[in-house]
Amino acid sequence: MVDLDDASRRRVHPVALAGLMLALLAALLLFLSGPGTRMGFWHFRTAFKMMGWAAYAGGAAALVSIAGLALARGRGRALAAAGLVIGALMLYLPWSWRNEAMKYPGIHDITTDVANPPAFVAIAPLRKDAPNPPEYAGDSIARQQLEAYPDIKPLMLAMPVDSAFTLALETVRDMGWELVDQNRRDGRIEGTATTPFMGFKDDVVVRVSSASGISRVDVRSKSRIGRGDVGANARRIRAYLDKLRQSDPAPVRAE
Q1: Domain boundary, last residue among 101, 121, 153
Q2: Which structural domain, as residue segments, surrounds residue 157?
Q3: Where are the alpha helices (DSSP H) in 39-160?
Q4: What are the two backbone dihedrals, phi and then psi, of residue 146, each rounded to the nearest 5 degrees?
Q5: Are residues 141 and 202 in the same domain?
Q6: Are residues 86 and 113 in the same domain?
Q7: Distance of CA 79 to the CA centre of its chain
Q8: The pTM is what?
């Protein structure tokens, strides 16, 4: 004799299944958005739209899964619970990223020397088709940087310029940036950093100069696309200077 109650528990309620499928679709949209941009399958603006679609789909999945929890029994409830968790997470992640982005100023060119920022030379031709030109915009962004990132300052190294240049070059390689050019005579090192998720290209120039018998290291990091950078360029400069400072046997405080 067939146990109808046991059979109903084994049968998955379609609402619970729909909630889970919708949640998985949201996850697919979200986690393919960045790699797809990085591999050139679609424009970065399409990726941002996909993140928005993922948030909407995640919210819908959470609501459907709540209904699934009320309607389903047995294994269906487990699927509804999974759909609720995944859907809520897909709604939360884009929302949290957007809120985090709003904390930062809408600038994408950060430097330790706002009065005389290091200039891009070898990288300049690589940016000819980029929406953001290689030139520094001046006071319009300098004021915003000084307010948002007052800690971004030059690093002073108690060593000759030639030794500081060698150390700065080694540190560029340690950071994993693509080395574009090095000019020991000018004290200039240029490289390109690629963001891990979206594959955005941000260019970096390091300038090593003499300062009253010791060496001064200035860094500039600028995004090729986008109005803001969600603090990425400032974090990159901090990470570089911290690594450089740790490699210096006799560090001097930043100016």
Answers
A1: 101
A2: 109-252
A3: 44-71, 75-101, 139-148
A4: -60, -30
A5: yes
A6: no
A7: 33
A8: 0.84
